[in-house]
C-alpha cells in the first residue's frame, strides 16, 4: 500500500502528521477535553502507557506555558519514548508499586490532578479474557483509560463508582465506529472513608455470577454513554480525498516520531536478511551488527 493511499484512508492519521502529533490518538484526548474540560486547573498530570507520546504531547502543549514551572507531567511506559518538552519519562511497569512511588517522588508527595491512559494489554482474541485483563489494568490505573465494551462491563462501572462520583463512558469522534473501544472518564475522586490504596489486591474479586448484569432497580449501575466531538468533525471510518483544500496542494508529510525500539524490531531485522522463517535465525542484535559491518 502506497503512502498516499494510507493517507487517504485515515483522515486522522493524515491530520496527525500535518499538525505534528506523534499518533492519531492525540485527537481522542483533544475531543475528550472538549467535552469534559479535563485540563482545567491541572498542574500535575500522569500519562500511563504513554509511548509513542501523542497524549503526552497534548498535555505538554495544553498545560505548559513558556515560564510555567508549576506544571509537572510524567509519562510512563515499558517502551522507550523520544523526549518531549516539560515531560518527565519513566520507563517501567505501571502495575508495580515501585513505579507508583517514583511518580509520587516527581510530584513531591502531592496527588496527581489528572491521570490519562490510552493503553491496552496485548489481545489474545478471546474477548472475555481480553475484557477481563483490560478491566484489571484499568482498575490499577484509574481514573481515565481505554476500555473494551463487553457484557461484563457493568461490574467494572460498579467498582469505579465506589471511588468517583462521576463515571461516564465516552466515545471520541476520532475513535473508529467499527471498534468496540471507548474511554471511561472518572471525575471527582471520593474514596471510601478509611480506604488505603493497595495495588496488590485487584478490586474484581471473582465472586460475581452470570446474572450480575441482570440486576434491576438501585442495585444496577447504569453509566451514561457519550459520543464526543462535533458532528461536523471528520468521520474516522470514512475515506476522504487527499485534496481537502482546493487552494492548497497536497504534500506527503512523514510521521512526526517513528517508534523507538518497537517490539517488532527483531522481526523486521530478520525479514530484512531473509531469516524470518529459519529455525536457526540469529538475534536482531547480531543481524544489526552484520548490517553495520557490510555497510562499512
Automatic annotation (TrEMBL):
Residues binding S-adenosyl-L-methionine, per UniProt: 53, 55, 77, 93, 118
GO MF annotations, alphabetized: tRNA (guanosine(34)-2'-O)-methyltransferase activity
Domain of life: Eukaryota
Enzyme Commission number(s): 2.1.1.205
Annotated region (Disordered), positions in chain: 272-296
Location(s) in or outside the cell: Cytoplasm; Nucleus
A cellular-component GO term for this protein: nucleus
GO BP: any one term: cytoplasmic translation
Protein name: Putative tRNA (cytidine(32)/guanosine(34)-2'-O)-methyltransferase
Alphabetically ordered keywords of this record: Cytoplasm, Methyltransferase, S-adenosyl-L-methionine, Transferase, tRNA processing
Main function: Methylates the 2'-O-ribose of nucleotides at positions 32 and 34 of the tRNA anticodon loop of substrate tRNAs.
Pfam families per record: FtsJ
Quaternary structure and interacting proteins, as annotated: Interacts with WDR6; the interaction is direct, and required for 2'-O-methylation of position 34 in substrate tRNAs.
Family of this protein: Belongs to the class I-like SAM-binding methyltransferase superfamily. RNA methyltransferase RlmE family. TRM7 subfamily.
Catalytic activity of the protein: cytidine(32)/guanosine(34) in tRNA + 2 S-adenosyl-L-methionine = 2'-O-methylcytidine(32)/2'-O-methylguanosine(34) in tRNA + 2 S-adenosyl-L-homocysteine + 2 H(+)
Domain Ribosomal RNA methyltransferase FtsJ: 21-189
Amino acid at each position: 500500500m502506497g503512502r498516499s493511499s494510507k493517507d487517504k484512508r485515515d483522515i486522522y492519521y493524515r491530520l496527525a502528521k500535518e499538525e505534528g502529533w506523534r499518533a492519531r490518538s492525540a485527537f481522542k484526548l483533544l475531543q475528550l477535553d472538549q467535552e469534559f474540560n479535563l485540563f482545567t486547573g491541572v498542574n500535575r498530570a500522569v500519562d500511563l502507557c504513554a509511548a509513542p507520546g501523542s497524549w503526552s504531547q497534548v498535555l505538554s502543549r495544553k498545560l505548559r506555558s513558556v515560564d510555567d514551572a508549576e506544571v509537572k507531567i510524567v509519562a510512563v511506559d515499558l517502551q522507550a519514548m523520544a523526549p518531549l518538552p516539560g515531560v518527565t519519562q519513566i520507563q517501567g511497569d505501571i502495575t508495580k508499586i515501585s513505579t507508583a512511588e517514583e511518580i509520587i517522588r516527581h510530584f513531591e508527595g502531592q496527588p496527581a490532578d489528572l491521570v490519562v491512559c490510552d493503553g491496552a494489554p496485548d489481545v489474545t482474541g478471546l474477548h472475555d479474557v481480553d475484557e477481563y485483563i483490560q478491566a484489571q489494568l484499568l482498575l490499577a490505573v484509574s481514573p481515565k483509560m481505554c476500555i473494551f465494551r463487553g457484557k461484563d462491563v457493568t461490574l467494572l462501572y460498579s467498582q469505579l463508582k465506589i471511588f468517583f462520583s462521576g463515571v461516564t463512558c465516552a466515545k471520541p469522534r476520532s475513535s473508529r465506529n467499527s471498534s468496540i473501544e471507548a474511554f471511561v472518564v472518572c471525575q471527582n475522586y471520593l474514596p471510601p472513608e478509611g480506604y488505603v490504596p493497595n495495588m496488590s489486591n485487584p478490586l474484581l474479586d471473582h465472586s460475581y455470577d452470570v446474572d450480575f448484569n441482570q440486576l434491576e432497580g438501585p442495585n444496577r449501575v447504569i453509566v451514561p454513554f457519550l459520543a464526543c466531538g462535533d458532528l461536523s468533525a471528520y468521520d474516522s471510518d470514512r475515506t476522504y480525498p487527499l485534496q481537502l483544500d482546493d487552494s492548497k496542494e497536497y504534500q506527503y508529510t512523514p510521521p512526526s516520531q517513528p517508534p523507538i525500539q518497537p517490539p517488532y524490531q527483531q522481526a523486521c531485522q530478520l525479514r530484512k536478511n531473509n531469516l524470518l522463517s529459519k529455525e536457526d535465525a540469529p538475534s536482531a542484535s547480531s543481524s544489526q551488527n552484520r548490517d553495520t559491518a557490510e555497510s562499512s
